[in-house]
Amino acid sequence: MKKVSDIIVFIAVALLLGACSDDDGDSMSGTDLPLSFSEDVISFDTIFSDIGSPTKIFKVYNRRGKALNIESIDLMSGGESGFRVNVDGESGTHFTNVEILKNDSLFSFVEVTFEPAKSIDFVVKDSIRFVTEGVTQYVKLEAVGLDVYKWHDKVIAQDTVLTDEKPFLIYNSLTIKEGVKVTIEENAHFYFRRNASFHIYGSVDIQGTVEK
Predict the structure, then answer these.
(1) Contact status, residue 76 vs residue 141, Cβ threshold 8 Å
(2) Over the range 195-206, which residues count as b (16 or more CB within 10 Å of their CB) and which as e?
(3) Contacts of 58 (CB under 8 A, 6+ apart)
């Protein structure tokens, strides 16, 4: 039977050998990717057609102890999706050889604008691909778009039925003239820009239920 002291020595040697490697501290494991991001998914909620979105910011981090060269950064749709990107102060859809210093970061900006669509509401997805030292990483982009009627200082001067075909986006004001009746069908939607108002000098018949 082996002595207890022999077993302890064997365990100690095994642990020491397991801890030794020729890793220089900069190798990549399955979770040690060259870049990290403040956001893996950039989402926009309810972007009206033909109206640009707010600008969203995300940061690209190099947490390594050495500078890295990002070989390429690509907006995968080439701009066809409506998304726009700016990386480290430059706008475009394709960037090459972007240097990021050790323990440093890059600012990146994303915006989106949609053209009027055949469907009222829709979801558009895209992504930004980063290739660094042969390793590919992605930041996903997604946005909910909404096609609307845009009314600027709209005056309704005759009896009118407003349907739920598309939502209405009101700029400044919506006015119903005296003696005019406007019927608003069930499930019609109105969006009012900041400080926009609704002036009713005629009458409004709002149809629907509490739920719609």
Answers:
(1) no
(2) ebeeeeebeeee
(3) 37, 38, 39, 42, 108, 110, 139
What the block records as the tokens of 83 is 């998304």
Q: What does the chain come to in residues?
A: 212
Residue 139 has what DSSP assignment? E
Whether the pLDDT of residue 26 is over 80: the answer is: no
* Extended beta strands in 93-189, E state: 94-100, 104-112, 121-132, 135-146, 149-156, 160-162, 168-176, 181-184
* pLDDT, tens digit, 9 for 90 and up, residues 46-102: 899 888 899 999 999 999 889 999 999 999 999 999 999 999 999 999 999 999 999
- Give me the sign of the Cα torsion angle 19, 23, 28, 32: positive
Distance CA 80, CA 93 (A): 10
Does the pTM exceed 0.85? no
Query: Do residues 27 and 125 lie in contact, with contact meaning Cβ atoms separated by under 8 Å?
Result: no
CA atoms lying within 13 Å on the CB side of residue 95: 21
**pLDDT tens readout for residues 119-148:** 677 899 999 999 999 999 999 999 998 999
* Long-range contacts of residues 198-203, Cβ cutoff 8 Å, at least 24 apart: 198/170, 198/173, 198/174, 199/173, 199/174, 199/175, 200/176, 201/175, 201/176, 201/177, 202/156, 202/176, 202/177, 202/178, 203/176
Tokens linked to 101: 């210093």
